[in-house]
Amino acid sequence: MRIARFSIDGNVAFGAVEGDSAPGAEGELVLDIIKGIPFADFELSGTKVPLGKVRLLPPVLPNKVVAIGRNYAEHAAELGNEVPDAPVAFFKPSTSVVGPGDPIAYPSFSQELHHEAELAVVIGRMCREVPRERVKDVILGYTCANDVTARDVQKRENQWARAKGFDSSCPLGPWIETELDPGDLAVECTVNGERRQLGRTSEMVRSVEDLIVHITEAMTLLPGDVVLTGTPAGVGPLNVGDEVAVTIEGIGTLTNKVIKRG
């Protein structure tokens, strides 16, 4: 099931996305409004609205986004880094999250903004110290993410909080796919229609299961929290006016435009 979060006539709701999401078929998509929230038992209302009549929002509003750095060997190498002995985790605050079609505001303190296409894991239930065999039980589904990074700031500051946590640095969307095997999915990023990144989740140094086990050894994850799993090689610059799109096999495409920060 594809679950979207959207607004219509000033109201916010979740809906199940129905129809063909192939390129050129977006007009066929409709949302069956969900009674309740997707983190508990819910029903479909049967009330349907065309996707074109609503504004898609970030599919969740996470309490926290836990991101993993250098989880693809070729990406680590392209920035002159070794693959770490243990996962490198950092946080992106909830205020960094924006949705499909929302602008990415180029931060005034950076001169080198980069895209990073990533598979995002959406947590479905409160969990801690999750054993490997239970990881699937705590995941609601998967969505597309762009770990937008002020690369120059990342290089000169020991902590990555400003470089990766500024407002609008975490686009998520367009929706959550709940029926998906994350083991070998194509991850692509284009800028103004030109391909920049193309990798597969099978190239990750540590799998989704590895990451959830590692993270929950230290902290509790809450329903709606998001885990970013790292980016494949090919990261590169974004400029004001660019349109950046992240496409993940089996999910869809997340598109945002870079604007000057006001």
Description of the molecule:
It is built from four helices and 20 strands. The protein starts with a strand and ends with a strand. The strands form three sheets. Strands 1, 2, 3, 4, 5, 6, 7, 8, 11, 12, 14 and 17 form a twelve-stranded mixed β-sheet that branches. Strands 9-20-19-15-16 form a five-stranded mixed β-sheet, with no helix packed on it. It has 262 residues and is mainly β. The protein is 10% helix and 40% strand. It has two domains: 2-56, SH3 type barrels (Roll), CATH 2.30.30.370; 65-260, Fumarylacetoacetase-like, C-terminal domain (Fumarylacetoacetate hydrolase, domain 2, Alpha-Beta Complex), CATH 3.90.850.10.
Describe what is shown at a glance:
With 262 residues, this protein is mostly beta strands.
Task: Measure the end-to-end span.
Answer: 38 Å
Q: How many β strands by DSSP?
A: 20
Percent helix range: under 10%
Supply the helix-strand structural class.
Answer: mainly beta
Count of structural domains: 2
pLDDT averaged residue by residue:
96
Please give the CATH architecture of the largest domain. Answer: Alpha-Beta Complex
Which fold name fills CATH's third level, the topology of the largest domain? Fumarylacetoacetate hydrolase, domain 2
Tell me the name of the CATH homologous superfamily of the largest domain. Fumarylacetoacetase-like, C-terminal domain
What radius of gyration results from the CA coordinates?
17 Å
CATH class of the largest domain: Alpha Beta
Overall body shape: globular
Largest sheet: 12 strands, mixed
Low-pLDDT sequence parts: none
Domain Fumarylacetoacetase-like C-terminal: 64-258
Domain Rv2993c-like N-terminal: 1-59
GO molecular function, one term: hydrolase activity
Keywords: Hydrolase, Metal-binding
